[in-house]
Specification:
alpha+beta, Rossmann fold, Immunoglobulin-like, 5-stranded antiparallel beta sheet, Oligo_trans_STT3, transmembrane, metal-binding, EC 2.4.99.21, manganese
C-alpha cells in the first residue's frame, strides 16, 4: 500500500491549522458574547473604559480622519487630555467608514468586533515568532495555545471590551517578532563596523531592511500607546546582557549596534514626524522625552561597543567592571547636571514597579498574586518554566541572541505583571511561546522513541536474541547454535527510550490539559460576558439624565483645541465616583467631574474628598470650585466600594476612620473579626445622600459595645466583652454609665453592625444625622435593594440623582418638614433642624415640574406655621419670610 508523504502537504496543513486556531477566539470571544449583547440600541459594552473608546470612535467618525487630543466632555471644569495614541481608534473608525456604519448601534457593533479580530491576528504572529525561535512544530503549538489562553488576555479581547489593551499585546508581539528577525539577519550578515570591505550594500541591505521593519513595528505600538517604551527598556536590558555574553565568548557585537541604531533611528524619525501633543518629558505621554530616550539607547549601545572593542583581549572581568564604573558615573552626572531628568526616571521606575495604597482600589493596577497567576495560566506556568529552562540550556550550548532576547522580554514582562496585574495580557504571549518551546523540545526529543514504542517495525524488537522466526539461526562450531550478536545489537538500538516516551506523554498530557482547561474557560467567559456590562439601574438613570437635565452646551462630537477652548455659561459638571465617569459622558452626554483615568479623584476638590466629607460646608465648597450641578450616588459606592473613596481621600487611614473592627471571642483563645459602622460613616456625603435622601435622621436601634483595648487584651484588635442591641436613648445612657467607672483599657461605645451582617444598618445611624440644605432628589431608579425583605422592609433604591441648589431661606426655630413623593412612588418626609434661627430648604412646593414632588407645604413641627416655596425661590436663594 502506498504511503502518503505528509511533508509534501505540510505548508497546506500548517496554513489550515493556523486558520482553524484563529477561528477559535473569533468564536469564543466574538460570536458567543455577541449573541447576547447586541440589541437594536447597540451593545452593552463591558465595564467602563470601552464606553470611552467608543465615544472616541463616534467623534473620529464624525470628524474622519481627525483625532481629539483634548476632550471637553469629561473632567469638568478643565476637560481632559487624551494620553494614548490614535491607532486603535483610527482602525475602528476606518472600518466604520468603509462599511458605512454611521449610527451609534452600527458603530458599537463594528467596534466590538475589533478586539476578537486582533486576538485572531495574534495566532499567525505567535506562530511566526515561535517558528523563528525554534521550528514549525513549536510554532503550531504556540499558535494553538495563544488561541485559547485565558485570563486578562482573553477578557480584554472579548466582543464588547473595546479598548487598546489587545492592540498593545498584538503590536508589541509584532515588534518582538520583527526585532528577533532583525537579530538573526544582522548576525548572519558577517559584517564589521571597523572593516570597510564588509560595509557594502549587498552585505548591509537585508540587515538594515529587517531592522527598519522592526522600527516600523515599534512605531505601530507607539502610535497605539506610549507605554511601548517598556519594550525599549527590554531592548536596553537585552543589549547589556548580550554584550556581556559576546565579550566572554570573544564574539563581536557589531550586529547589535546596527540593529539598535536602525530600529530606534526609525523610531526617532517616526516619533518626530508624529509630533508631540503633550509637553514635558513624561515617557507615559507623547512627549519629546521619547526622542531623548531612544537617542540615549543608541548612544548607550555605541558606548558598550566601544568598551567591548577597547577591552577585547584583556581579562574578562574588565568589561563588567568598566560597565559598573560607567553606569555609576552616568547616574552621578545625571543627578548633578540634570536633576529633573534624574528624578523623572527614578519616579517613573518606582511608580511603575512599586505599589501605593490607592492602586489597590484600581483593579488593573494592583499586584499580581499567586492565586491570580494559577487561576489564569495554571499548567501553563509549569510548561513556561520548562520553556525558560530549555532556552537557558540552548544558550548554554550555543548563545543565540534571539533566545536571550526572549528570556529578557519574559523576565521584564513577568516583573511588570507582578507589579500590576494589567500586564497579564502582555504575559499571555510569553506563556504561550515558552510553553510551546518546552512542549516542542520534548516532542522533538521523544518523537522517534514514541514511534518505536507505538509503531514498532516488524522484526525490530524481540524479547530475546535469536527468537526471530523469520531468519534461521546462525551455526557455530560443531553444529552448535551461536549467539546472533548482529541481531542483538540491532534490537537494542531500536528499542525505545522509555524515559523519553514517558516525558513525551507527560508533557503532551499537561499541554492538552492547559489548552483544554483554558478553552473551557474561554467558552464560559464568552457565555457570561453579557453580565459584565452596565447595570440596568445605571442605564435607566443616565437615560433619564440625558432627557431631563439641561444641555451643557458643549458639542459632543466636536474636536476642540485645549489652548483655545472655554466652556459656555450653560455648562456644568456631574459629581459621582470615578468608575461611572465614562458612562455619564457616553449615555447621558453630560460632563463628569472625574473619570476612570482616575482624574478628578484626589486633592482638595476631588471626588474622594467630596464623597467621604462629613461637613456639608466643605462638600459644597468642592462643588462650587468645580462647577457641579448634579450628584449621582449608587448603592455600591455607599457599601462595597466605599473603601475606595475612603482610601483615595486618605491613603494612610483609609476606611478605618469610618469603620471600626473588633475581635469577638468564639471559643477559648479564639477570635473572629467583625466590622462595625461608626457615626463618621453615617455623616459622610455618600451616606447622607444615598441612605437618608439628605434629610435629618435620628437614631433608632444601635449596638451597645463593651470592649478592651488591643494592648490590654494583648491582641491585634480590640476585643468585645459585651454586645447588645438597644434603642438609642438607652444605649447613650449605658455608655455614659459604663465609661464613668470603667477600668483601665476597658470602654463602651455605640456602633452599628456592618451592612454585610445586617443590611438595614445602613439606615440606622448611631447619633442624629443633620439634614443637607442644598441637595434635592430629582430621580431614583426603581430597584429596591431590600426587595427580599418584603412589603414592610426598608426601601432603598440602587441609583439616585440629586441636584445641588442654592436653596430658599426660611426664618424660624425648631424642625421644619415637608412630605415628598419620588418618581417611583416612594414617600418620605424631608426634615431639617434650624441653624441660628434659619432653615435653608432645597425642595420647591410650587413652580417645579420635576418627577420628585412635594405633596404639601413646609411646616415647622409642633406649630401651625406653613410656607410655600417656589422654584424661583430655590434657584435664587431667596429669603421668603
Amino acid at each position: 500500500m502506498a504511503r502518503i508523504d505528509l511533508n509534501k502537504y505540510r505548508p497546506y496543513i500548517i496554513v489550515g491549522l493556523i486558520v482553524l486556531f484563529a477561528l477559535l477566539p473569533l468564536w469564543t470571544r466574538g460570536f458567543l458574547p455577541a449573541a447576547d449583547m447586541v440589541t437594536p440600541e447597540g451593545v452593552n459594552l463591558l465595564e467602563n473604559d470601552p464606553w470611552y473608546t467608543v465615544r472616541q470612535v463616534e467623534q473620529a467618525v464624525a470628524n474622519f480622519p481627525g483625532y481629539a487630543w483634548f476632550d471637553a466632555m469629561t473632567l469638568y471644569p478643565t476637560g481632559d487630555v487624551v494620553y494614548w495614541g490614535p491607532l486603535f481608534v483610527q482602525i475602528i473608525s476606518t472600518l466604520c467608514v468603509l462599511v458605512g456604519a454611521t449610527t451609534r448601534p452600527e458603530i458599537m457593533v463594528v467596534a466590538c468586533w475589533v478586539p476578537p479580530l486582533m486576538a485572531a491576528a495574534m495566532v499567525p504572529v505567535t506562530y511566526l515568532l515561535a517558528k523563528k525561535i525554534a521550528d514549525w512544530k513549536t510554532g503550531l503549538i504556540a499558535a494553538g495555545l495563544i488561541a485559547v489562553i485565558g485570563g486578562n488576555y482573553a477578557y480584554r479581547s472579548l466582543f464588547g471590551f473595546v479598548d487598546h489593551h489587545i492592540a498593545e499585546t498584538l503590536f508589541s508581539t509584532i515588534f518582538v517578532l520583527a526585532y528577533v528577525a532583525a537579530l538573526y539577519t544582522a548576525r548572519e550578515g558577517r559584517f564589521s563596523l571597523t572593516s570597510r570591505e564588509t560595509l557594502k550594500i549587498e552585505t548591509l541591505k537585508m540587515p538594515v531592511i529587517t531592522a527598519a521593519l522592526a522600527g516600523v513595528a515599534y512605531l505601530l505600538g507607539y502610535f497605539n500607546m506610549p507605554t511601548i517604551i517598556l519594550f525599549a527598556l527590554i531592548v536596553v536590558a537585552f543589549t547589556l546582557v548580550q554584550f556581556l555574553l559576546d565579550f566572554f565568548q570573544d564574539r563581536k557585537s557589531d550586529y547589535l549596534v546596527l540593529v539598535n541604531a536602525v530600529v530606534f533611528g526609525v523610531a526617532i524619525i517616526g516619533v518626530a514626524a508624529f509630533g508631540f501633543p503633550h509637553p514635558g518629558l513624561d515617557l507615559s505621554r507623547y512627549t519629546v522625552g521619547h526622542v531623548v530616550a531612544y537617542a540615549v539607547l543608541i548612544a548607550g549601545t555605541l558606548v558598550l561597543y566601544g568598551l567591548s572593542t577597547y577591552l577585547r583581549g584583556r581579562p574578562k572581568y574588565y568589561f563588567p567592571a568598566a560597565l559598573a564604573l560607567v553606569a555609576a558615573a552616568a547616574v552621578a552626572a545625571l543627578y548633578v547636571a540634570l536633576p529633573d531628568i534624574y528624578n523623572l526616571l527614578i519616579s517613573s521606575l518606582l511608580s511603575f514597579f512599586g505599589e501605593q495604597p490607592v492602586t489597590t482600589t484600581v483593579g488593573e493596577a494592583r499586584a499580581w498574586l499567586y492565586d491570580d497567576a494559577w487561576k489564569t495560566f495554571h499548567w501553563g506556568l509549569v510548561l513556561a518554566a520548562g520553556g525558560a529552562v530549555t532556552l537557558l540550556w540552548w544558550i548554554w550550548q550555543k548563545v543565540n541572541p534571539a533566545h536571550v532576547f526572549v528570556l529578557v522580554w519574559t523576565a521584564v514582562i513577568f516583573a511588570s505583571t507582578a507589579a500590576h496585574v494589567r500586564y497579564e495580557y502582555y504575559f499571555a504571549a510569553n506563556i504561550a511561546l515558552l510553553s510551546a518551546v518546552f512542549a516542542g523540545a520534548v516532542l522533538n526529543m521523544g518523537w522517534k522513541d514514541v514511534k518505536r514504542f507505538f509503531l514498532p517495525k516488524r522484526g525490530e524488537i524481540s524479547s530475546e536474541p535469536g527468537e526471530n522466526q523469520g531468519e534461521p539461526a546462525r551455526k557455530g562450531k560443531k553444529g552448535s547454535r551461536a549467539p546472533d550478536t548482529r541481531k542483538s545489537k540491532t534490537s537494542s538500538r531500536n528499542r525505545p527510550d522509555y524515559l523519553k516516551v514517558g516525558a513525551f506523554i507527560a508533557v503532551a498530557v499537561v499541554t492538552l490539559l492547559f489548552a483544554g482547561t483554558s478553552f473551557q474557560a474561554n467558552i464560559a467567559m464568552g457565555n457570561t460576558a453579557q453580565y459584565a456590562g452596565i447595570d440596568s439601574q445605571w442605564m435607566e438613570a443616565l437615560k433619564w439624565m440625558n432627557a431631563n437635565t439641561p444641555d451643557p452646551g458643549v458639542d459632543y462630537y466636536a474636536i476642540y483645541d485645549k489652548d483655545t477652548f472655554t466652556y459656555p455659561e450653560t455648562s456644568y459638571g456631574v459629581m459621582s465616583w470615578w468608575d461611572y465617569g465614562h458612562w455619564i459622558t457616553f449615555l447621558a452626554k453630560r460632563i463628569p467631574n472625574n473619570n476612570p483615568f482616575q482624574h478628578g479623584v484626589t486633592g482638595a476638590n476631588g471626588s474622594a474628598a467630596y464623597l467621604v466629607s462629613t461637613s456639608e460646608e466643605d462638600a459644597n465648597r468642592i462643588l462650587d470650585n468645580i462647577g457641579t450641578r448634579y450628584v449621582v450616588t449608587d448603592i455600591l459606592v455607599d457599601t462595597a466600594k466605599f473603601w475606595a473613596p475612603a482610601t483615595w481621600a486618605d491613603p494612610d487611614v483609609g476606611i478605618e476612620r469610618f469603620q471600626t473592627e473588633f475581635f469577638i471571642p468564639v471559643s477559648a483563645g479564639n477570635y473572629q473579626s467583625m466590622p462595625f459602622h461608626n457615626q463618621e460613616y453615617y455623616l459622610t456625603m455618600i451616606s447622607r445622600l444615598h441612605n437618608f435622601d439628605g434629610s435629618m435622621t435620628d437614631p433608632s436601634q444601635v449596638t451597645y459595645v463593651e470592649y478592651r483595648d488591643a494592648d490590654a487584651a494583648n491582641t491585634s484588635l480590640p476585643v468585645i466583652t459585651r454586645l447588645q442591641q438597644m434603642n438609642a436613648t438607652e444605649g447613650a445612657a449605658a455608655v455614659e454609665a459604663y465609661n464613668r467607672n470603667a477600668s483601665v483599657g476597658s470602654h463602651a461605645t455605640l456602633l452599628n453592625i456592618h451592612y454585610q451582617l445586617q443590611g438595614a444598618s445602613l439606615l440606622q445611624p448611631v447619633e442624629r444625622v443633620p439634614a443637607l440644605q442644598h441637595y434635592r432628589l430629582v430621580h431614583e431608579t426603581p430597584q429596591n435593594i431590600y426587595s427580599n425583605a418584603g412589603a414592610n422592609g426598608p426601601d432603598l433604591k440602587a441609583v439616585k440623582i440629586f441636584e445641588y441648589v442654592p436653596g430658599a431661606r426660611i426664618k424660624g426655630e425648631g424642625i421644619i418638614e415637608v412630605p415628598v413623593t419620588t418618581n417611583t412612588g416612594r414617600e418620605f418626609t424631608y426634615r431639617q433642624e434650624s441653624v441660628n434661627g434659619t432653615f435653608i430648604v432645597p425642595y420647591a412646593t410650587s413652580g417645579w415640574s420635576g418627577e420628585v414632588k412635594t405633596t404639601g407645604p413646609y411646616r415647622i413641627a409642633g406649630t401651625d406655621q406653613t410656607f410655600d416655596v417656589t422654584e424661583e425661590d430655590i434657584q435664587q436663594g431667596r429669603t421668603i419670610n
